[in-house]
Write a structure and sequence with these properties.
- By secondary structure, this protein is an alpha/beta fold.
- Helices cover 42% and strands 16% of the residues.
- It has a six-stranded parallel sheet, sandwiched between helices. Strands 9-8-7-10-11-12 form a six-stranded parallel sheet, with helices on both faces.
- Helix 3 (71-86) links the parallel strand 3 and strand 4 (90-94).
- Helix 7 crosses helix 11 (318-324).
Length: 366
């Protein structure tokens, strides 16, 4: 019996970011043994015409499509969705961010907005990352067709039980806690605030107080000016003693960094934010989370329970935030448990196995 075919129209790495990483995890999962996966990489818009041809010729019975949250990307997506409708393809759209509804209702013209409403209502299903993000599609598609599939931590980045037990035993005796910023270097992701926290730490050390924290930064710079500013800030403020920049990390290097660090910081206001995989990875490795009440993050982090949720007002009071930074065994265990129960890779894959099987074998929407 031949495999049912599924066409992925999505952004694949490189570059690596939350969306492309999640797509790559799904595409290269064990589901490849159960379904015939096809791949249309829409990362490079120069391939648009070739992608149109590939989609037109596709024999897939189901399409999995990750849509954009920019004006130009949305026009491309509307063209692709029109082609899929013309070809009578079942299509599931997966939204990996939180900005789409604002884009459709406020940033584009009336015609483009209406076309989005029509296109979404014609889909088999839309998938969002958390319950709080279901409202993005309310009024565009019936509630029963809005599905929730949380992101996950890849198996190779999840520390073992033995490693975790060793980490929680040692944390109470650590002389200095390790703070991690692991994300792309975009100002609205909050790396400037973490630099300021490091500056506070250095001033304390200069005044004769004991070291409390060491700050680790890892991720990609998209603009050379951002990189120059970052490195100059460290030099100008004499912070090389309290900051380590690891560059872009992946594989073993990333796993060791997650295992070593105690506090994870993502003080984000990034407009396209969804449910950051980096927070899930940090929680799975027993870290306390410092973040904001933004996008799908409230479904992951509760202030005072498993981390610190920083309000917009508090972002201006970094000295107060510095004094709140903490990590204890109870928080580490709680965060680890949440990930093991809801955000493991196997759970993520099983969620999609169920969706794909329903769409291909059972459900026929009128």
């Amino acid at each position: 019996m031949s495999k049912k075919r599924i066409c992925f129209i999505a952004q694949f790495p490189p570059p690596i970011h939350g969306l492309s990483k999640a797509v790559d995890t799904l595409y290269n999962s064990e589901l490849k043994n159960e379904f015939g996966f096809e791949k249309v990489d829409i990362t490079n818009n120069k391939m648009f015409l070739r992608n149109l041809y590939t989609i037109w010729k596709s024999k897939a019975e189901l399409v999995y499509f990750t849509i954009s949250q920019t004006k130009g990307g949305n026009i491309r997506d509307l063209l692709l969705l029109s082609l899929l409708k013309m070809r009578r393809k079942k299509c599931i759209v997966h939204l990996h961010g939180g900005y789409y509804r604002k884009l459709v209702d406020h940033d584009v013209g009336k015609l483009q907005s209406r076309l989005n409403y029509y296109a979404i209502n014609s889909l088999e299903n839309v998938i969002v990352l958390s319950d709080s993000m279901k409202s993005i599609f309310t009024g565009m598609i019936t509630e029963d067709r809005i599905l929730v599939v949380p992101n996950c931590i890849d198996n190779d980045l999840l520390m073992t039980e033995l490693e975790f037990e060793q980490k929680i035993r040692l944390v109470e005796d650590k002389q200095s806690l390790d703070v991690l910023y692991l994300s792309n270097f975009i100002k609205t992701k909050g790396y400037l605030e973490v630099l300021e926290l490091a500056k506070i730490e250095q001033k304390r050390i200069d005044s004769g107080e004991k070291r409390k924290f060491h700050f680790h930064f890892a991720g990609k710079f998209f603009r050379s000016e951002e990189r120059e500013f970052f490195l100059e800030f460290i030099d100008d403020n004499g912070l090389s003693n309290v900051i380590t920049y690891h560059g872009e990390v992946k594989g073993t290097q990333k796993k060791e960094l997650l295992k070593m660090c105690d506090i994870f910081t993502l003080i984000t206001r990034y407009p396209n934010e969804g449910q950051p995989i980096s927070i899930i990875e940090a929680m799975g490795n027993g870290m306390t989370i410092v973040t904001t009440n933004h996008a799908g993050i409230p479904d992951l982090v509760k202030n005072g329970e498993n981390g610190i949720v920083v309000t917009e007002t508090e972002q201006q009071k970094l000295s107060e935030l510095y004094n709140r930074l903490y990590c204890n065994q109870e928080t580490m265990i709680n965060n680890r448990t949440v990930i093991l129960e809801t955000f493991k890779e196997s759970i993520y894959i099983n969620n999609f196995r169920s969706i794909f099987n329903r769409k291909l074998n059972h459900e026929h929407r009128n």
